Amino acid sequence: MPAPSIYLDHNATTPLDPRVLEAMRPYYLSAGNAESRHSAGRRARRAWDEAREATARVLGAFADEVVFTSGGTEANNLAVLGLARGDDGPGRIVSSPIEHPAVAEPIAFLETRGFAVDRPDVDAEGLADADLMASYFDDRTRLAALMLANNETGALQPVARLAELAATRGVPVHTDAVQAVGRIPVDFHALGVATLAASAHKFHGPVGVGLLLIRRGVKLAPRLFGGGQQQGRRPGTAPVPLVVGLATALELGRAESETRIATWARLSDRLEAGLIAALGPGRVVPNGPLDRARRLPQTVNLGFVGIEGEALMIQLDLAGVAVSLGSACASGSTQPSPTLVAMRVAADRLRSSVRFSLGASTTEAEIDEAVLRTVAAVERLTG
Hints:
By secondary structure, the protein is an alpha/beta fold.
């Protein structure tokens, strides 16, 4: 009988919380367009408005600052392309070199259209320097982009500091908070950014829905046309069941936040310490901030020196443990992780690194078994 599978790739996607599914179910089983004026439409509109208000409450925003999207990729693209306002002619963008492809690629697209892009270095722990980024601002700077938490190492970035510095120059800051929302408390207004992106499937909500928070007064050029929904910023028929699911998952995450964070921190430390103790500190090297407070509580990125990360991931998959080499959106790439390259990670672990990421359902027994299976996989590969 095969051993039970252990899912440790929650930074790629999380399983849907059954309570979220139950909240969504009534809106899947009944018709109602939120723009229609009959009773079914009004019912859908109430659910939509309540979901938007709940989302705003959890994330420290006003309800009219919430724009629902199809996910984090769309939200990030809307922000980058909308804030840059390329139709006004090329300008300058300041970005960290560790951004997710959903931010890095639209910025690269703008670069091909004549925008100048500065990507100041991060340090060896993968942390950006907000003051260094701000030193690149000039009168042509249209946008600064800095993710809230790195998807590969979990490193928490100084977004609030960058937004504070940017405000003195009138530069809007966009933050990709896809990995942060649902894992740590996030307060949009306290961060001081112009826009913030998140995606429901990262915090046990449904796939196919995300959000972009847009601060009141911020001008964002629309990228889609065809309707007046959501103030014309993101037209289209309201996906009521999905936004109900997103809001429910957010509220559950907030209610259980203290317990989840404490559990994740304990289990992540147990995983990391267990692997280092079994294999030796010279063979297992953490990537990212050594200080637990400076990274996501449920993300562990380890370099297994002398082993190809791809081979280890395959061995773990065969052993029933799901992990990742980094961003799921770049999983087909044969190139080393841009984040680890930007961190100037030593060559002996640049291609040997594996990401373990925990979710709300991860147990201590699963962590202990994952350590045993990982050790066995490493020993098979080193023979």
